Amino acid sequence: MINKLSSSSKTSMVKRILTGLVLMAVVIPCLVFGDWAFFALSILLAVFGIHEILKAPGSGRYSLPIKIAVYFFVLSFIYWTFIKSWADSSDPNPFNGSSTFYLNNIFVSILGIILYAMVLFLIAVCTPKVQLSDVTYLFTVGLFFALGFQGMLFLRYFPNSSGITYMGATTIPVEWGTGVTCKTYFSDYYQYRGLSQSFNSCLAFIFMLIGTWGADVGAYFIGVLFGKHRMNPRISPHKTWEGFFGGFVFSMAASLGFAAVCEFAFDSPLVPGILQFSHSPLLQATGVMDGTAWPFLFGIAFLMPIVGNVGGFAFSLIKRQFGIKDFGTIFPGHGGVIDRFDSILTNSIMISIVMLITANGWNLLV
């Protein structure tokens, strides 16, 4: 039986739809253009997100020094790989003359993490208002937030690189070209197919958005219309099992459908050799499942609605801890940056790890 919608539910639904359309109108162009457009958007969202992290326990709880420390360290964690490239004058990157953004790794400075913890503890020792719970909150949430944003950058810029850095294979025998190596696999594939690498490199990120937001949209509408059984009312009273399974089915169908259209209609897999349905000469050369690529694609599509829900519950737990409804109000009907991107942060980390390990021949020491 379909649930009867109240006037407030109808208003909220319309507001969420309109806000979602506006958000997509901003995000999608920046995502497609990539390079500086997406880089600038990520900085803007990161700054708003860090502000929401600091505001959640109370707008006047943290002093200026601790705010400066959190902004400095979290932003440095997010953009650490770019900072390293900028410092290395021999590395071709946008900050040293190249016009193309790319990432081949996910990395956070261990020294930076140690310093971040030490600075937070030092402030707590010197400031009676800052407790141990504040240190653990700012450290764990700040680091997780940074890894999530770095994961988003990796998903957008990794397919824009020339290839992977795997050292165990030289020339890869492929039907579509000659002299193809691991280090040039992506660029060679796009060049041979006559495709724009700068444009097609956004497909993996769109796949993640469809899988993540598809689960949210499906869960919201199915939950509102048919939801009866609450998943975890202590943390998130509005999420239902009916909504979860509805979102799960919608997410998998939409994400895999998008991947299939890209690969079979436009000859452009999400990430050539890494995320695709067909046999992968790249994975065969690196010794991963004899080149069978589709299990990774299906596995990620299967995990996205599950991992996304875990991220949503994790940040909902923080909101319940501090007695707030949303982290922010920048997106009417959706809340703040963290409210809208909580599932995206967790899925970005998950997908980036799977892609990175796969690209390195399933070497778990990368």
Total number of helices: 13
- Which radius of gyration do the C-alpha atoms yield? 21 Å
Order of helices and strands: HHHHHHHHHEEHHHH
Distance between the termini: 51 Å
Low-confidence stretches: none
Give a brief description.
Helix content is 64%, strand content 2%. It has 366 residues and is mostly helical.
Produce the secondary structure layout.
Layout (H helix, E strand, L loop, with lengths): L6 H27 L1 H21 L8 H15 L1 H8 L22 H17 L5 H26 L27 H9 L3 H4 L2 H24 L3 E3 L3 E5 H25 L15 H5 L8 H29 L14 H23 L7
Antiparallel strand pairs: 1-2
Helix pairs in contact: 1-2, 2-3, 2-6, 3-5, 3-6, 5-6, 6-13, 9-10, 9-12, 9-13, 10-12, 12-13
Structure description:
The chain is 64% helix and 2% strand. The chain is built from 13 helices and two strands. A hairpin with a 3-residue loop joins strand 1 and strand 2. The radius of gyration is 21 Å and the shape is globular.
Properties at a glance:
two-stranded antiparallel sheet; 366 residues; 2 strands; single chain; mainly alpha
